[in-house]
Design goal:
about 150 residues; alpha/beta; Cytidine Deaminase, domain 2; six-stranded mixed sheet; 4 helices; about 25% helix; globular
């Protein structure tokens, strides 16, 4: 079970509402101490990619997300605080849709590149209201992704 601090959820939920009706995206860093967890908002460039090449990127930001290059560099090369902090998870929103891990989410998830494996959090959002949040974690090739219960604390 993930015991997610309410303040972390609130930050992600505010990001989802601010980006609505587009999907928001970002990542979490910290240590094993939940008081160290930090939300890093990222810029969703899906609309830009769709506008440049709709054949290659048929979806717009209402149903898809791609982190900007700057955010990917920050993710891979950033120094996070406090010392010992690591990437704990990724998050994105599903506007006007339930919080579920879609087939596209599964295909684009980054697995086997961080240890321990980060989780994937999905928030539902409708207008000015963020709703449920669910988490999914890669287990192994045989099992794939499994939903991990989330408790807001």
């Amino acid at each position: 079970m993930l015991r997610l601090p309410r303040s972390v959820y609130d930050h992600m939920a505010a990001h989802a509402v601010a980006e609505y009706p587009r999907e928001c995206c970002g990542f979490l860093t910290g240590t094993d101490d939940p008081d160290s967890w930090q939300v890093h908002r990222c810029r969703n460039i899906q609309d830009e990619l769709h506008a440049k090449d709709p054949a290659q990127y048929p979806r717009d930001a209402r149903t898809a997300y791609v982190f900007s290059r700057e955010d990917m560099e920050r993710l891979f090369f950033g120094a996070f605080q406090p010392p010992g902090a690591r990437v704990l998870g990724f998050y994105h929103s599903h506007p006007d849709s339930p919080a579920y891990f879609s087939e596209k989410d599964r295909m684009e998830a980054l697995t086997d590149w961080l240890d321990p494996e980060p989780g994937y959090l999905v928030l539902s959002v409708t207008g000015e209201n963020a709703g449920e949040i669910r988490m999914y974690r890669w287990i192994d090739d045989a099992t794939g992704f499994r939903e991990i219960p989330v408790e807001l604390v």
